[in-house]
């Protein structure tokens, strides 16, 4: 439990980044007309998903975040900078809230409350109810599968004009569901659930935008449900550019109080 109250404004940015990622070798992208091909196998669809992964070094832009927890609703636009496999940085207007995530650390601070958090990924794992690392967060933001689908076997069906992948063997701790859209073979929907704990995390990619030749999410909807509590986050990516030079200005101000978790 957290012994200090986190303001909604801070939650918008931190939860987005937290529930908000692998990329290495290049591969020929699969070209599709956007229509379902019912002759494809699950293995072929999974292969196409990884052949079409985003090829980039850095990504910059803005993200409009709408947040609702059933009582409060807030909206803010944040600056986003990413360097593949190295860093994810977000800043709210005037630097009131900043988030900086690396493969080893999760850190954010909030000037409204003079508070900060600086720790490992166990904080995120507790939030999502499953093990989380940098790769999972990066993938979530970019429309890639949260987990490596090549490590499992799936049944393939067609649902709502997408390829629907369900594991042949159910997970011991949680259930997963993946839907891949047929045009770019990017994620249409990802779902993690823990029925016994009444937890559900769903990432719905409403559409994609082309930046050069790369397909990047445009609008994303993320409902997170636990028992009778529901948080909803909507993301809209704007002014996205690839492979610009980036830096990550981040320093926790002196005198801020550390957020302590039990």
Structure commentary:
The chain is built from four helices and 14 strands. With 262 residues, it is mainly beta. Strands 7-8-9-10-11-12-13-1-2-3-4-5-6-14 form a 14-stranded mixed β-sheet, covered by helices on one side. A hairpin with a 3-residue loop joins strand 2 and strand 3.
The total beta strand count reads 14
Strand order of the largest sheet: 7-8-9-10-11-12-13-1-2-3-4-5-6-14
Query: What is the ordering of alpha helices and beta strands?
Result: HHEEEEEEHHEEEEEEEE
What fraction, in percent, of the residue positions are helical? Answer: 10-25%
| Total number of helices | 4
Average pLDDT: 84
Radius of gyration: 18 Å
Structural class: mainly beta
Q: Beta fraction of the residues? A: 35-45%
Biggest β-sheet, characterized? Answer: 14 strands, mixed
Report how far the terminal alpha carbons are from each other: 6 Å
Given the C-alpha coordinates, what overall shape results?
globular
Could you name the ranges where pLDDT drops below 50 across 5 or more consecutive residues?
1-10, 12-31
Give me the secondary-structure topology.
Blueprint: H1 8-18, H2 42-51, E1 58-68, E2 73-83, E3 87-91, E4 97-101, E5 106-110, E6 115-119, H3 122-128, H4 134-142, E7 154-159, E8 162-167, E9 175-180, E10 187-194, E11 199-211, E12 214-226, E13 229-242, E14 257-258
Parallel strand pairs: 6-14
Antiparallel strand pairs: 1-2, 1-13, 2-3, 3-4, 4-5, 5-6, 7-8, 8-9, 9-10, 10-11, 11-12, 12-13
């Amino acid at each position: 439990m957290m012994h200090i109250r986190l303001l909604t404004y801070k939650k918008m940015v931190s939860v987005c980044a937290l529930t908000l990622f692998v990329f290495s070798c290049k591969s020929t992208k699969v070209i599709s007309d956007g229509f379902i091909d019912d002759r494809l196998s699950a293995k072929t669809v999974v292969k196409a998903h990884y052949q079409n992964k985003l090829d980039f070094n850095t990504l910059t832009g803005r993200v409009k975040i709408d947040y609702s927890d059933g009582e409060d609703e807030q909206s803010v636009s944040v600056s986003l900078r990413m360097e593949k496999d190295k860093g994810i940085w977000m800043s709210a207007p005037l630097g009131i809230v900043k988030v900086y995530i690396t493969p080893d650390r999760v850190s954010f601070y909030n000037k409204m409350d003079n508070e900060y958090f600086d720790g490992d990924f166990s904080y995120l794992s507790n939030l999502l109810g499953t093990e989380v690392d940098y790769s999972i967060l990066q993938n979530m933001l970019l429309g890639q599968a949260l987990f490596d689908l090549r490590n499992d076997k799936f049944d393939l069906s067609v649902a709502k004009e997408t390829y629907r992948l369900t594991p042949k063997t159910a997970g011991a701790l949680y259930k997963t569901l993946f839907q891949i859209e047929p045009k770019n073979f990017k994620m249409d929907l990802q779902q993690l659930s823990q029925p016994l704990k009444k937890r559900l995390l769903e990432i719905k990619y409403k559409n994609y935008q082309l930046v050069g030749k790369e397909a990047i999410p445009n609008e994303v909807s993320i409902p997170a449900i636990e028992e009778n509590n529901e948080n909803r986050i909507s993301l809209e990516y704007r002014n996205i550019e690839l492979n610009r030079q980036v830096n990550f200005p981040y320093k926790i101000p002196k005198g801020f109080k550390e957020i302590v978790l039990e």
